[in-house]
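Dear Dr. K.,

Following up on our conversation at the group meeting, I've run the structure prediction for PYD and CARD domain containing from Myripristis murdjan. I'm pasting the input sequence below exactly as I used it, so you can double-check it against your construct before we proceed with anything downstream. Let me know if the numbering doesn't match what you have in your notebook.
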Amino acid sequence: MPPRTIKAAIQDALEDLTEKKFKKFCAALLDRRGEPRVKRSSVEGQDYITIAQVLVSTFTEPGALRITLELLREIDCNEEAERLGELPHEPKRISIISISQSIFAHGPSAGASAGRTMSGDKHFVDTHRTALIQRVSTVPPLLDELLDRGIIKQEDCHHVGYQEPVL
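The predicted C-alpha cells came back this morning:
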C-alpha cells in the first residue's frame, strides 16, 4: 500500500475530532497570528475535507502538517496530534541549506545544464527566484541555521529585521 499523503492524514485527524473540538480547531486556525493567514470565508461552515484542503493550499503539505500539529496541541487534542505526528507520511525533505549553499557557492546558475527551463537558457532557480523566496514562511529558523553554519554573519541577520533568540 502506498504511503498516505499528508493531506489524507490531516483529513483523518480532523474527521476524528468531536464537533466541538473541530470548531475549536477552526477557531484556532482563524486566530493564528502567523503568516500566511487563512480567510474566514475559507473556514466557516466547512467540513474536515475542505479544511484539510485549505491547510494544504495555504501552507503546502509539510507546513500544513506543522500547523495542524500546533493547533491540535493548542486545543488540547494531544492524543490526536501524537497519532498524526507518528504516521509515516512526511515526504523526504530537501535541505534549504544545501540548496542555498549550492546557489551561493557557484553563482546564480549553478547546475544550469540540468535545470534549464523549456522557455530559455535560465536556470529554474533564476526563473522562479521571486516565487521561491515568497514561499519561505519561517525566516528566523532559516537565518539561525545559516548563521550557525557560517554562511552569513550576524550583521546580515539584522538587515532582515531578525533578532537573536533569547537563550
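Two things stood out to me. The longest helix spans residues 48-74. The domain at 6-86 is CATH 1.10.533.10 (Death Domain, Fas).

Best regards,
J.T.
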